[in-house]
Amino acid sequence: MKRLILPLVTLLLCTSPTIIATAQQTAVDFFESGIAKSKANDFTGALQAFSMAITMNPDNSASYYNRGLAKANLKDHRGAILDYDRAIELNGKDALAYLSRGVSKSKQDDHRGALLDFSRSIELNPDDPQAYYNRGVSRSRIDQYRGALADFTKALELDPANAQTYYVRGVTKQKLEDFAGSLPDFTKVVDLTPKRPQAYAGRGMSKVELNDFTGAVTDLNKAIELSPEDGESYFYRGYAKGKLEDYKGALADYDKAIALKGDNYRAYYGRGFCRSKLGDQKSAVQDFNQAIDMNNVNVDTKVVYSGKISRITLDKLRDVVQERNKINELGSERAEAYFSRGISKNKQGDQKSAITDLNKAIELSPTYAEAYFSRGLIKSAQGDQRAAIMDCNSAVKLNPRYAEVYYIRGIIKHSLGDENSGCLDLSKAGELGYNPAYKVISDFCN
Questions:
Q1: Long-range Cβ contacts of 190-196 (<8 Å, 24+ apart)
Q2: What does pTM read for this prediction?
Q3: What is the DSSP code (8-state) at residue 383?
Q4: Where does 210-309 have alpha helices with state H?
Q5: How far is CA 344 from the centre of its chain?
Q6: Distance of alpha carbon 228 from alpha carbon 156, whole angstroms
Q7: Quick one: which of 128, 271, 186, 266 has its CA closest to 118?
Q8: In whole angstroms, what is the distance from residue 24 CA to residue 11 CA?
Q9: 32: Cβ–Cβ under 8 A, 6 or more apart, which residues?
Q10: Chain Cα centroid distance, residue 99
Q11: Where would you find the membrane-spanning parts of this chain (predicted)?
Q12: CB 408 within 8 A of CB 427
């Protein structure tokens, strides 16, 4: 079967029709549909198609691989890793699966795990420059700069016109304090992409370290022209101007650097130095105090909602999910009646009575997944997130395909600081067809 490699891009979520299997549709048909949807950037539709292909043929590694790519393009890297795991389990010689899994691991800051995957990909396909580049990035993230330098050099041997690789090699040389060696790399980036401000900024910073302050100012002028909100370029230009005894010019640059990044203690120090040179000793002392004290602030407060999702955000994300209140035939135990009355009481704002009715519904019908879920929603709204999670656990145990429960449990777990487990739940919700999960994944799981 053919397979598709897609770049990881930022996308707007869109809903797609639910895919319904017919007697005429085969696993191959769904796979081909997934490929077509992926090419059209309909990654939610592609995910559903590949899921159907997997349901009909659970031993096809390409379906798992391509579903992993679809999830990765939806920024669901935790879910993508699970699919890549299965693809590799079915086909351990797939270099692209290792490469893609490494990319998703690096997106989750698992750089050592990513490094192992990139190394395995290189073993299987030693002529792929992207694998060397990615491994170099992972090595640099764990301070293995010499290994990273070797990887970037190999990547450039295989792809000598890649501006990004020259740039990261130049940055790596800076990390190794080879500032003179970084200059040709940044110059190559300028030649290949003359509108890239980072190349001028990088070269300017290296020139500062080499005491070429006039040349540094020239490069940093260009960097700021191309990217006027780059606080670091203002800082380094201020430093270079100070070395050239242009204290007024340096002062203006430090002002801008601080305005763009208020916790830049080096900029406060530099501005204090310039103010002292210009005779404003009172302001200079204030800046020096700020530079000294800035990193000594330690606020230790107990936070219940310790994840990126705050209580306010949790409430907003939770409250758009509706209980599954549908007309059922009333059983002799009357559980449906208690359930429906509880939903109505909750909508009237009587949460206490609603909980009482839902408790009764569960007592009469212990396998009533919707009742557990609805009770969990109310408990979450009351701030009892642990109890809400327990109800969600019961609901998904009774109905493992209850997508909304995974979504709610995911955002609650995330709000309590369990980001990994929360994001895996959100991934499962999306996989089961609850597409709003991918917006939350994009905002809070990367």
A1: 192/161, 192/163, 192/166, 193/163, 195/226, 196/163, 196/167, 196/226
A2: 0.75
A3: T
A4: 213-226, 231-243, 247-260, 265-277, 281-293
A5: 39
A6: 31
A7: 128
A8: 32
A9: none
A10: 18
A11: none
A12: no
Contacts of range 268-274, beta carbons closer than 8 Å, 24 or more positions apart: 268/294, 270/235, 270/238, 270/239, 270/242, 271/238, 273/242, 274/238, 274/242, 274/247, 274/248, 274/250
For 177, list phi and psi in degrees, rounded to 5: 65, 25
Cα angle 201, 179, 195; round to 5: 25
193: helix, coil or strand? coil
Architecture of domain 311-444: Alpha Horseshoe (1.25)
b/e map of 87-109 (b: 16 or more CB within 10 Å)? bbebeeebbbbbbbbbbbbbbbe
Tokens of 183: 């200059």
- The CATH classification number of 1-91 equals 1.25.40.10
From residue 175, alpha-carbon distances to 111, 115, 141, 146, 148 in Å are 18, 19, 11, 10, 11
Token pair 């709610």 is at which residue?
Answer: 408
Residue found by looking up tokens 């890649």 in the block: 162
Domain boundaries of the chain, sorted by first residue:
1-91, 311-444
436: which DSSP letter? H
| Structural contact between residues 45 and 66, judged by C-beta atoms closer than 8 angstroms | no
- The amino acid present at 294, given as its one-letter code, is M
Burial (CB < 10 A; 0-12, 13-18, 19+), residue 28, is: middle
Same topology between domain 1-91 and domain 311-444: yes
Whole-angstrom distance, CA of residue 169 vs CA of residue 188: 11
Q: What angle do CA 202, 205, 208 make, to 5 degrees?
A: 155
| CA distances for 383 relative to 10, 32, 202, 253, 374, angstroms | 33, 46, 49, 48, 14
* Residue 128 φ/ψ, nearest 5 degrees: -100, 110
Question: The tokens of 54 are what?
Answer: 């997997």
User: Which residues have C-beta within 8 Å of that of residue 185, sequence separation ≥ 6?
Assistant: 166, 167, 169, 170, 173
What local confidence, expressed as pLDDT, does residue 202 receive?
Answer: 97
- Assigned token pair, 163: 């501006």
Question: In the structure encoding, which two tokens stand for residue 85, read together?
Answer: 């795991």
CA distance linking residue 199 with residue 207, whole number of Å:
12
- Residue 217 neighbours by CB distance under 10 Å: 24
Contact, 286 vs 292, CB < 8 A?
Answer: no
**Residue that is written with structure tokens 């330098």 in the block:** 149
